[in-house]
Write a structure and sequence with these properties.
Pfam families: DUF501. It contains eight helices and three strands; from the N terminus they run H-E-E-E-H-H-H-H-H-H-H. With 203 residues, it is mainly alpha-helical. The structure holds zinc ion.
Amino acid sequence: MNRAPVPSSVPTQQDLDTLSLQLGRPVRDVVEIPARCVCGSPLVAATAPRLSNGIPFPTTFYLTHPTATAAVSRLEAAGVMAEMTQQLHDDPLLAQQYRQAHEHYLAERERIRNLANLEPVWEIEGISAGGMPTRVKCLHVLTGHALAAGPGVNPLGDQTLERISTEWTAETCTCETAWDHSAEVPVADLSRHVRRLKEREAS
Ligand SMILES: [Zn+2]
């Protein structure tokens, strides 16, 4: 693909359709596209901390690119989350950086909340995602955060990106074959969508 003009972080309808095709389900309440492929396609969706149906939503940054999510899933299946949690126990500096990543996550959620003109979401106050600040529960969350924030903010997200770099990087476009661009865009079935996201967050 040719390099597109530098796109805005504000999602267009085309961005939202692409996200729905990438995920195979309709996306809702996306406030920002905080990371894009070199071709311009979304890599990460930033979702409002309270969904339009009223449900609090702590996972602000969601990794959407199918090639990246599949590579991260393989790391999870290989037991990397337990390994990284052990790293946090063994390395005080890493643990401190990870706590700072947690704080950054919460600050970014506040920024997204303000962008979305929402009242404070008290239900998830102080709660980030992915196991932060002391555990590693979801590498997709950490990777989404690392892509959104740039290198040097989430050390375990950066480490995950490094470990999948033989399969996928943000600098090499695989979008052409990563999802079906000609498929019908999934339409809203919000109840199921929210339930599945909540199950994923709780797991
Ligand atoms: Zn691309």
